[in-house]
Amino acid sequence: MMDIHQILKQLPHRYPILLVDRVLELHKGASIRALKNVTINEPVFTGHFPHRPVFPGVLMLEALAQTAALLAFATLGVTPDDQTVYYFAGIDGARFKRPVEPGDQLVMDVTLERMKAGIFKFKGVARVGDEVACEAELMCTMRRIAG
Fold first, then answer.
1. 57 closest CA partner among 143, 144, 141, 126
2. Which residues pair with 54 in a beta bridge?
3. Which of 5, 13, 27, 48 is catalytic?
4. Looking at residue 129, what DSSP letter applies?
5. In this predicted model, what pLDDT tens digit does every residue of 107-144 receive, in sequence order?
6. 121 and which of 14, 105, 113, 136 could share a cystine (Cβ 3.0–4.6 Å)?
7. Tally of CA atoms within 13 A in the half-sphere of 138 that contains its CB
8. Whose CA is closest to 72, among 91, 87, 92?
9. What string of DSSP letters covers 70-122?
10. Which CATH architecture has domain 4-144?
11. Coil, helix or strand at residue 5
12. By CB neighbour count within 10 A (0-12 exposed, 13-18 middle, 19+ buried), where does 38 fall?
C-alpha cells in the first residue's frame, strides 16, 4: 500500500533511524500494518550485542511510533512539513516477549484507539511470524515549530 518512496515523503526520519520499510495495509482512522526488515548491516548491531546481535526494544517502540505517525497523517489527510514535528507523548504497558535478531521481519500492527485534543492514543503490536516481539500503548502528538 505504501513503498519506501512514499514513506520518505511522509516521515522526516532518515537512515539509520528510519524504521519502516513498507506499509502493507492502511485503514484511515482505524489501523495500519507495516514492516521493518532487520538486517545485520544495521549500525546498532556493532554494539548490541557483538556476541549475540539483538534489535533493541527501544527501536521496536520507535518503529511502532513511526508506523503510528503514518496512520495519524493518513487519518488527518496531511503531509507533514518542516514546521511540523511528531512527538512521543507517552508509552504505557510496553512489554518485550521475544528477541528480534538479524534476518527477522518485524510486522507492526497499530490501531488508533483515541484521538482527542491533538493527542493520539494507539495500541501497537510488533510480531515476528506469529510470535509477539513487543507491544505497547503509545501516545503521540503533532506540534508546529517556529522556524
1. 126
2. none
3. 48
4. T
5. 999 999 999 988 999 999 999 999 999 999 999 998 88
6. 113
7. 30
8. 87
9. HHHHHHHT----TTEEEEEEEEEEEEE-S---TT-EEEEEEEEEEEETTEEEE
10. Roll (3.10)
11. helix
12. buried
Query: What pLDDT sits at residue 118?
Result: 87
Give 80's pLDDT tier (boundaries 50, 70, 90).
Answer: confident
Contact 34, 20 (CB under 8 A): yes
Beta strand 119-128 pairing with 131-144: antiparallel
Query: Which candidate, 115, 118, 6, 17, places its Cα nearest to that of 65?
Result: 17
pLDDT band at 146 (very low <50, low <70, confident <90, very high): confident
- Strand partners of residue 135: 95, 125
Name residues whose C-beta falls within 8 Å of residue 34's C-beta, 6 or more positions apart in sequence: 2, 20, 21, 22, 23, 24, 67, 70, 107, 108, 110
